[in-house]
């Protein structure tokens, strides 16, 4: 008889991303590989190779099948998933990249961990903007819209929201604090409300969690928040958002 051949990852999966039309699912692992899947059938389509260390972040450009990948090798790579092809590599970070995000524009944003920088990569212009601010490692980053992003780090400060188009005028962004829902090591998820003009920070409430909270993701509708962490047991919590019909779900 024939033995079944393993298809897929053989090391820890660190990140995942799905294209905005739901056609492709990408996953990255500790073995430097990116796997592309059909999310409907779970069929493995192909693998993307090129990073020299663990793949730590993935993001599809909205409305396209362009994929950005970040790695502990300090680089960002651009891929055309439709063509199963490598496009280019972006360099600049001085330490392993810990976060990556993009929206519709031909650019992405990254967090550089212990190099304590945030970078905005303008791919078409072949340029980048560099931000400094956190005192410690910058561990996560998320775009709110095409003009503002939020970051979080291990220095204990509140998450920071700032307009990245004004990077040259305000290179130190830590004075503008505001954030949606940072997770942490203190066994809780904190929900915040941004003030008008993305200035100011108003805490809404916190949700207790067991163990470390390692990842957070809102649903596209904004009605649900999913949290992942180191709690070994499987559990779900549904908590009404303050003065709204929104819910919090954790696993």
TrEMBL record:
- Keyword terms: Nucleus, Repeat, WD repeat
Q: Superkingdom of the source?
A: Eukaryota
Pfam families with a match to the protein in the record: WD40
List residue spans for each WD repeat.
6-38, 48-89, 90-131
Q: Which InterPro entries match?
A: Rrp9-like, WD40/YVTN_repeat-like_dom_sf, WD40_PAC1, WD40_repeat_dom_sf, WD40_rpt
Q: Is the keyword Nucleus in the record?
A: yes
Q: Does the keyword Magnesium apply?
A: no
MF (Gene Ontology): U3 snoRNA binding
Q: Which GO terms describe its cellular component?
A: small-subunit processome
Q: Where can this protein be found?
A: Nucleus
Task: Write down what this protein is called.
Answer: Ribosomal RNA processing 9, U3 small nucleolar RNA binding protein
Q: Which organism is it from?
A: Sinocyclocheilus grahami (Dianchi golden-line fish)
Lineage here is: Eukaryota, Metazoa, Chordata, Craniata, Vertebrata
């Amino acid at each position: 008889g024939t033995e079944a051949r393993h298809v897929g990852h053989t090391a820890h999966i660190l990140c995942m991303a799905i294209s905005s039309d739901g056609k492709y699912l990408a996953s990255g692992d500790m073995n430097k590989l990116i796997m592309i899947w059909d999310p409907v059938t779970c069929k493995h389509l192909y693998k993307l190779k090129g990073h020299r260390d663990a793949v730590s972040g993935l993001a599809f450009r909205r409305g396209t099948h362009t994929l950005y990948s970040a790695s502990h090798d300090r680089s960002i790579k651009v891929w055309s998933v439709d063509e199963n092809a490598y496009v280019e590599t972006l360099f600049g970070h001085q330490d392993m990249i810990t976060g990556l995000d993009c929206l519709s524009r031909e650019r992405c944003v990254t967090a550089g961990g212990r190099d304590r920088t945030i970078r905005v990569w303008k791919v078409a212009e072949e340029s980048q903007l560099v931000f400094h601010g956190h005192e410690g490692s910058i561990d996560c980053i998320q775009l709110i819209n095409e003009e503002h992003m939020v970051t979080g780090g291990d220095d204990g400060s509140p998450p920071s929201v700032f307009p990245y188009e004004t990077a040259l005028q305000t290179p130190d962004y830590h004075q503008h604090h505001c954030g949606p829902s940072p997770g942490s090591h203190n066994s809780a998820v904190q929900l915040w409300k941004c003030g008008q003009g993305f200035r100011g920070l108003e805490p809404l409430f916190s949700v207790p969690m067991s163990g470390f909270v390692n990842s957070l993701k809102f649903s596209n509708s904004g009605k649900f928040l999913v949290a992942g962490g180191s709690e070994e047991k499987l559990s779900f919590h549904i908590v009404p958002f303050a003065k709204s019909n929104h819910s919090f779900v954790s696993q």
